[in-house]
Amino acid sequence: MRYADSRVEFARPFPERHGRRRERETWELRGPRERRRERGDRGERGERGERGERGERGDRGERGDRGERGERGRGDRERQHRGDSQDSRPVEREPRRGERQRSRTPDGLPRKSEAINAARSAYEESCRRLQMAQTEADAAEAAYKKMQKAADHAIDRKVAEESDHIKKDVEVKLGAMKAAAKNALALALDDAELQLRQELADKIAQMKKDYQKKVEDEHTRIRRKHTEEAEDAEAKVQEEADDKIKELRRKAEEEENPWEWQDARDKAVEALQKEEEKLDSAKRRLETLTGQPVQERRSRSRSLLPRDREKRKRIPPPPPQARRD
């Protein structure tokens, strides 16, 4: 349902002398679309008036018909000029028989009082329907609560019946699980203890082996050290004894050595060597002069001295150990 524009007051009966001016002002305040709709509405009202008054006032109907055709022609020309192919105003239905025709304002919209009455009727109808819907909702809620309560009782009964069997099964399963867990725990503890004991035995055996090797190495080291110390001590004692013997021999040689005969022997050897050198020199000279080798004439007796002159030199006495050998 459309109402008049808020910028314009609802139409009221105007005096005849001011009606045209007020209609023109109202027309100017409306938009192009409302103007087109009003022109179409006026054309329909004129057509209905022409059909109603044709039997009583022929001349007025003829003038109204001419006025309607003229106004319709102007409306058609304006629509053609603006490019409108057809009127966008909805076609109003004809009033039914016995139906009260609504009074409209000059612009084609229903009056404010009728709009208020229609809105009040719609509001009362909505309130009635709301009360009916509220009653139905309350009844449905009560029925739902009743059925929900019955369903809860049935659920509790079924759960109570089955929960006893389930609890018994759970107790049996828990007992079996506890026994199995206890056995598994005992086996696991035994296995762990055996494994640890085996590791301990292996470590002890390895440690014994390692320490046995260490003991043997230590014994070898101690024996070697002891042997070396004993040898060093023996060598030291032997060296001290040898030093003492050497010192005794030196002193004995100094005391008992025939120094005079030794000096005489050295002098005789030196004289012998000089004479031999002279003989050799004379022999070479003779051979040089004669050109022939000289034969030795003297027969030398077997001498205690070595023939080599270097070996005839006095040799120091050997050490005591060499003499013992």
From TrEMBL:
Residues 1-122, 210-325 are annotated as: Disordered. Residues 1-114, 210-220, 233-253, 262-287 have a biased composition (Basic and acidic residues). Residues 123-157 form a coiled coil. The keyword Hydrolase does not apply. Residues 316-325 have a biased composition (Pro residues). Keywords: Coiled coil. This is Ncm protein.
